[in-house]
Predict the structure.
Amino acid sequence: MIELFIAKRYLRTKHKLNLITIISFLSTAGIAIGVAALIIVLSVFNGFSSLVTSILISFDPHIRISITDENAFSKIHELESAVKNISDVKTYYPFAEGKSLLINKKNYEIVTLKGIPSALKNENWGISTKIISGKFDIESIDNTGKIILSLPLALRLSARIGDEIYVTSAYNIERTITSLSLPSTRKFIVTGIFETNNRDYDISYAFTSLESAQKLFGLKNNFTGYELRLDKINKSEKVKKELQKILPVNLFSVNTWYDLHKDLYSVMTVERWSAYILLSLIIAVATFNIFASLTMTVLEKKKDIGILRSMGLEKNSILKIFMLEGILVGIIGTIIGMTIGLLICYLQIKYNFYPLDPTKYIISAMPVKIQLTDIIAVGLMAMFLSFIASLYPAKRAANTIIIDSIKYE
């Protein structure tokens, strides 16, 4: 292909250090720096996103079905039947939760008290895996419930393992207001303290047995919902759609793990796209240099263009020569940038040369996760900008008038 051969010759024959050579070098360096920066930043975003997801998924269900209307209590058997018939569901269990007031001497806190089955202590996820003091023990003894507090709540309530605290629910408070009586409270023993590294959970959740929660909230034998764990987390959206087709939307609300933290993931997505767009400007500026160097090259090679055209080379071939020259600069810069970016990411994964203070963060080093889709997106974007920057100078070269370019030769 003669066009590619000539384009390579034009790139290689710039032995003299002139303005065009400097601009071409700056173009290549700018693209390389932009590509490397994009790959590194996107990989760091991937690392943090993966870390957040792993923290949330180790505690959250894959799908939560919440009861939104009391009429749904009569449909519980239909709900259980629907869940059993979905092959992707690994385990499921009912839960009961509501706002409660926890009191220990002069200290009190308003939290969401969640009742769960005792059988969850055998699972490799959830509250049983987050206990840092005491043990997972929520089975009531002699009408005295047991409760597991988060570390921040235990500190605020000045409660330790074995302490007795008193709990009343919003349901009890509402009932006592209407009957003009004192609110009834239940005694609970603190049997465990947990920490999830998720501030939202740690400051607002406490756990007890399902039976204790049902009594406290006046639910009798009813539940406030079901939580499901699947064989594979990436099937969550599929199972959600299946359940929504079966369950009445006015009685049940179905949410995936992503829906439960949609605001958080939306913010992370906005930050990721903002970083991508801003760092793409580095590559865009570098491609302006391609535009400048190619324009100057066209002026410098005006005689060569005239000779080639007089020898029978078509306009389209002249266009391809200068387009390929600009694209080659983009390819070289992209390859160098990818190599640098991937090398830095690998070194961080392997050696953690950028550490974090473990006393302030839950991890000891900056998390990095390389994704093939990011590399492809960055490479395509760099090549597209190089193509756009090369288009006008190449068209100008193709439209060169033969007589004007060689009449003084």
The two ends are 28 Å apart (CA to CA). The beta strands are 63-67, 89-104, 107-116, 131-134, 145-150, 164-169, 186-194, 205-209, 225-230, 252-256. The chain has a mean pLDDT of 85. Residues 197 and 362 are 7 Å apart (CA to CA).
